[in-house]
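User: Could you check the structure of this?
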Amino acid sequence: MIQAYFPFGVGAGNWQIYFPKYGLQSFMQTNYLVSDGYTTFQRPHSDFLWVLSELGILGFAAYVGLFMYVLKRGIKQLQYKTIVEEKVFILGLLITLIAYVFVAMVDFPLERNEHQFILAILFCILIGSDQQKKDSVGKPNYLVVIVLPILIASSLSYGLVRMNHEKHSKKIIEAHALANWNKLLKEASKINKNVYSIDNYSIPIAWYQGLAQYALNNPSLAKQYFTEAYHVNPYQVHVLNNMAGMQEQEGNHDAAIKFYDELLSISPTQPDAILNKSAVLYNQKKYTSAMDCLYAFKFDESNTQYIQFLQAIGYAYLKQEIEKNTASSNQAALQSISDPKFVVFYFTWNQAQGHTFNELIWPQ
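Assistant: Sure, the predicted structure tokens are below.
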């Protein structure tokens, strides 16, 4: 991400939107919910990489420069302090600040308000006042007197608006879990998407609206919201899945395949995408491609939809392959695949043997 968007970064708050673009499959070894797009990360476990990827080289230089400046001022205070207790106190603060930097290299204290509050206190004490200069009454800094209250008021106002939107977002998630579509739409209408367009799980508010409209049998509105959601987060698995589904419902098979391919490039083993893409290809009578896609699905006998797809697509594929062969054993083979259980056994047996789709053989 840093290389692709160097030197300006992807923008503040956008790391969690862009990171799936670079693939989720490696997370399969630790958490399949992440690799399948059901769980996401809000930030990397490194504040410095986080800042560099979002704010680019200039933002990173400013962030690092802030720590360097405070450390320099703290060391300067340490040099001119004459009282031992004061020296020990400043030294303790410097060690604490250095410890914070090491933690920030492998964790995300930047996101925690309580950590930032403590860090701000550290900064204030370490910067302190230049006691090497004689105390004098100077002219007030009118720029600070005017600008600082404006910044504080603006930040407070925006924070209150965001907090209110997060309350509505929580209610949307609760309504979604209960399939209370009317309440979901009511709460979503209270959100200004110019201020709050995406929830903490990187799912656009428009996606929830699209899902509700689809459930309420308003496909045109659903498509409108899903398209909006795609523009907000084009790398979100659920958004891509629904965009593909809407295209397929309208008979746009190629457009549907395009969105499924985008999804599978992010999460190659995402179960919904595999099933849905194989169904689209089956509807197009592309049985080989359909079975090739479905073969990547990890066998799950408890998934009735998968078993049904495997029986239908597997039968169509095997029948096509058998009919290509002019051997006298064709009739026996056709009779074998007429049993849905044998079709399931054929593919699961090959998977168990570690055969790829191009290496399928008749069970011995």
